[in-house]
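Appendix B. Extra example for self-study. Work through it before the problem class; the solution is given directly after the inputs so you can check yourself.
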Amino acid sequence: MRKRRLAVTLLLLLPLLALVAPGRALAEEPATAPATARNSIAEARARGELRWGNDSQGGAPYVFQDPMDPNHLIGFEVDFAAALAKKLGVRARPVQGAWDGLLALLDRGDFDLVINGIEVAEEKKRVADLSRPYYVAAMRLTVRKGDAGAPRTLGALRGRKVGTLPGSLAARLSEREGAEVKTYDGGQNDIYDDLRIGRTDAVLLDDPITLYYGAIDPALEVVDGSFGEVSYAVGVPKGDAETLAAVNGAIEALAKEGTLAALYARWGLWNEPTERLLGGPKPPSTAVAEAHDAWRAAVGKPLPFWSRVTDRYPATLGLFARGALLSLVVSLLAMTVAVTLGMALALARVYGPKPLQWLAVGYIEIFRGTPLLVQLTMVYFGLPELGVTLSPFVAGVIALGLNYAAAEAENYRAGLGSVPAGQMDAARTLGLSKLASLRHVALPQAIRVALPPTTNDFIALLKDSSLISVVTLTELTKTYTSLASAMRDHLGLGLVVALFYLGLSLPFARLSRSVEERLGSKVRRPASA
Amino acid sequence: MSICVTDLVKRHPGAAAPALAGLCMKVPTGKIASVLGRSGAGKTTLLRCLSGLDPFDDGTIDVGGVTFGAGAKHGSFGGRIGLVFQTFELFPHLSVLDNCTLAPRVVRGEARSRAEARVKELLAELGIEDKAKAYPEALSGGQKQRVAIARALAMEPSVLLYDEPTSALDPALKHEVGRTLRRVAGTGVTQIVVTHDLPVAREASDLVFVLDKGRVAAFGPPAEVIAEAA
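Solution. Structure tokens for the complete assembly:
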């Protein structure tokens, strides 16, 4: 009977999955391909679609959600990818991934290319091949306006707190100068916010970021002059010579015909080093930085809270709802794995023969004692080495499920431990087999004890499911961090995402209370009366 | 049906002396036998071996002409011997009716309606038919005991064992136990009662066995044996 109930539950979940699936197909989630003998460009041409990896949380002006309509990705690299794809005879499809892991995801086969401010640097070349550069950015130093002690030269950075992006040239430069470097995984916005409120003394970052986040803040000042140059290149799978040649050829053609110049001018990014790099025509003198102006108009001056609620937030609700649905479905499936496996582990640990007990204890200690993030990374990025390449969705469900199974096993063990030994003896003297005694006598009582902690765990799992964003899934938290970066609004959108999380968790807390009451009333009727 | 225990031996691992050292006893069909003895005399071990909870090392147990030897697996008496626990061990998550019908339905595959009809008769015989839908926590000690007896009887055992049936009851209820035993005896079930309670043994039983060091030290009608012991 229990089996049938499980089957029914799974059947009920299927439509939910179907709801998520089209969303995944339409936008950011990658399909998975084997990572051997890559020829990205041939694959993309066969598909008619070029999957290019990026992290929209990185923000403007690279790849970000349009603050006026967050359902669309915009940015100079969105335009660049579209132009590049067109030259290559395919459509461009952006695929989301965590910025730190973009090249690892490329290596794994989740993208054909990576276009997201990838700097030309030796450490990047170890992981992927890099195309010829398509843009050169100057390094700019931003300080607080009116800060008399602000560092205004590289040398002055010694011993000062400098904010920048992890793994960037700016970070290496600052470290070399002896600065105390603070790097940020979140949006660019945070880096300048921290400078404004005094958590750092300066920010050293590429020109485009400075222009879109530092320069628009009236409390900040961009120090004159360049502090170095960094080139951006397209990340191509290691050893994929055909794709590298095709991408290089396309970039050269785009430079020669002036497409890149016009594109950079539109985003206000045209500069002298890029002009030297491209060598082609300059943008027309009539060109205006309309995209940059639109950005300033959208986020330059924060709107009052209520205007944001009425004007900006409604457009985000669809994205939040999709993120919430993904979080919920992943959590429900992961919990199904955790409950089933956890029960088996608990039974093995309490009633199994010695070797099985040791195995169960080993499993529980290993999975409980190591971080979920490590497990998820091993499942998603590590297993392909053994020939097991899982989709992000499956990897997320499995990693969360395996991790929480350890916690569930301990809940059920506590539950089974709370059933007096005499209960099993009584069942056996009535002629029930060991299995039947477990099923009809011990388990129903154990579950009553284990239910409250299990519900707690489910709510914790719902929140931990935010980790699946590292395997390219745009769940609820990732939806929030991307939107907050694109709309420069952490507090207001934070309240919105909090409401979504509460909307997911409160019904389960309530359900558990009512189930507990129902089970409790059976055994404690006189006490509760 | 009668029960005959012959040369029963049970050794606990690590213990110097066996808990049961060649114990013999015979109780005729429908009779009530009390088993007395100091702590450590082997009473609990005897119960656990007779009920199939623990295996024994040597000897035989004969129930109604079917003989079980050493190495017989737990529960292999096939429901021929039931046990009423000292603490009753009713299943707290099941109603009285479900407590009693669980084993017939799960072990014998009996239809729920048939099992419930039989159990309701048993409950009526024991005077607790109005408690069928109650849960164990709502019952008094005496009621719990009668449910535990009904639950064991629902499997239609030949022999019913009791572990200290009066110890968990109010003194005022103790005389009820004797009456219940007599009612059950009327159905032809053979009963063995392990107890400390001399008055109950004297009033309720047909036969008394006194255990010492894992053997029967004395047996006979209660009037004789208990007078001797006292």
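Self-check: The longest strand of chain B covers residues 3-10. If your reasoning did not lead you there, revisit section 3.
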